[in-house]
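Researcher: Here's the sequence for the chain we discussed earlier.
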Amino acid sequence: MNDIKKSPINSLGYQFVDARYLPKGKDEYYLRNLQNRSGVQYRQLTAYELEVLVRNRNTSANWNDILVSDAFTPELVQNCKFFGLIRIGKLEPYFLEFHNLRRPVGFYNSTIISCDIGDNVCIDNTNYLSHYIIGNDVMIVNTNEMATTDHAKFGNGILKEGEEESIRIWLEVCNENGGRSIIPFNGMLPGDAWLWTRHRDDQALQDKFREFTAAAFDNRRGYYGKVGDRTVIKNCKIIKDVWIGSDAYLKGANKLKNLTINSSAEAKSQVGEGCELVNGIVGFGCRVFYGVKAVRFIMASHSQLKYGARLINSYLGNNATISCCEVLNSLIFPAHEQHHNNSFLCAALVMGQSNMAAGATIGSNHNSRSPDGEIVAGRGFWPGLCVSLKHNSRFASYAILAKGDYPAELDIPIPFALISNDVSKDELIIMPAYWFLHNMYAIARNSWKYVDRDKRIDKTQLLEFDYLAPDTVGEMIVALTHLERCTGLAVAKQEGHRRKLSDEEFIALGAALLRESPEKAETLEIIAEGWENSDRKVRLVKVGQAWALFQDLIAYHAANQLLRLIREESVGNFAELMTLLPSTLPLQRWVNAGGQLIREGQLQQMIGQIHSGRIKNWEQVHLFYLRQGEQYATDKLVHALAAWKVTTGITLRRGGPKALGALLLQSVATKEKLTKEIFVSRAKDYTNPFRKMVYESPEEMNAVVGRLQDNGFIRQEKEALRKYRREVEELVKKWKLPT
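Model: Thanks. This is the structure I predict for it:
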């Protein structure tokens, strides 16, 4: 039986906060008064105003609790029911217009309970509006229910006075069994979410994160919901315990409950038709449209959910789009694209700049006795059409998977690799450096477009979008050793070595072949071990080309970072350059902390400061991100030079100007090669007969897809090459570098 309580009508709108939760000497409005910062001086109604309100079929259980500003026009209030303390700003004879919705200022055909309402607001046909503070120039039209409870948390995973721990909202990201759960809070950055999901064995650190979150929010009962200035709400059904920023647009939503919807004039958020959002945080500049279902979620700023997407127990990073599909229990870093109806992502950590094709099923089943599997994918992850992956799997950066059902768990440590399932031979095929060999246009354009599409206003975390960065360069160094070892094993097998070689000897044997006779590597059967949880072969192809490319790219990255330093610091000569470079070049490991690359040593120091109490809150964690961003260029340069040293044995201190000259000229050759491949990989789309066959003539093809020579990105890259070559030539000449 439903527990329906009966109370006197004159008590409706009052006693919002139970007396036991009110501090001594405070009334139920003490928090409301803190929230209302309008500065309006309210007064009681005049006899004339009261007469007009009654004549216009308005009612109130207590007219003395209707307070208004001096610029109040009672004729603009018609057929409304008021309960509790109501405070009203200006009402002037205007009409408001937004996207062809035109409504007069004022209150019409609505029930309003205990609200503060700003200047020139339109509330029309709102059946139930309770306990909200509403800004100026707001439109609320055709809304069924809009209410706030005394224990509203607005999507934050906090507890109010008197509440049990069991009702706390957690996000069960990365793992379906809750082993990496985090407490959501407004303002949580991707780095925060990632940091909290890691180090699960460090209970003291986990407790600190809970303390940080609890301290950031007030556990007192009695906060009202808020609607910011110029927000428009129309044709919505249920809005409960929702905090809405300014300039938001909510239209036709079915249910919005326990949310913060961040919005501002510079970053407007929108929620559209048929959407149901429960227990979540919507970041600035987000868009949610057409039947979306999201439960226990965070959308970082400028992300989108569209076309029936389902986002559950997940964190979606900045500048990301999910539409049509289902995402569960995942932590997704910025710049993720997933927009096909039949793709599925579950229990995954996806490190951004990622794209999931139609039919991709990432985390299709669990290979354990419990749903506790995980997938970890470095940035640039791209599972192709109808790819099916098993828990647990792990991928280095820029892994692309060809169409196929991958039957076992994978651990692929090589970046920029094409991973293929050869069903006919029952083999897993790995092609390292695939992007540079066959699809340079795509990887180069992606790095450019992510920068162009980064719409964040708050850039506390410095996101890295370049495909050459400390994380990928570090992975290439690891990959070189893997390629050398696997090649050495193949050489030893072919040559029939009787003596069992050590791991170092296998690496040396493979390195010698790849350095001196890379073409011979293509004649070998090069097999990797431990990369797939199966007994079948994992075959590496084009190893010689990949090995040489990785070497060139590491050197090219070092040259780029040196040129940037010389350019930004206006370095005049080689001796001056040496004063700016460190005397030692340790190769440090880097981590991807929510899209921001940070030295692991620095991250561990920060964790130590959390333990010691030097870092006391999330604001100081965010300050750490900012400081790391400020020194990122310097740290990246040091890492680039250390990587060059590890792979070549060369340093500028020992090699002198001659080494610098050789490095710069080598980098020009590498950039020429990369730029040529950008053109060649795109040109294939114009020469492939199967691409051309749907057009009646070359002219029609150009009209549809555009002329190759007019491609803006290719022209941009050719111009960049010209400038780069000229910069190097001028520097070599000015500094008189030996070549």
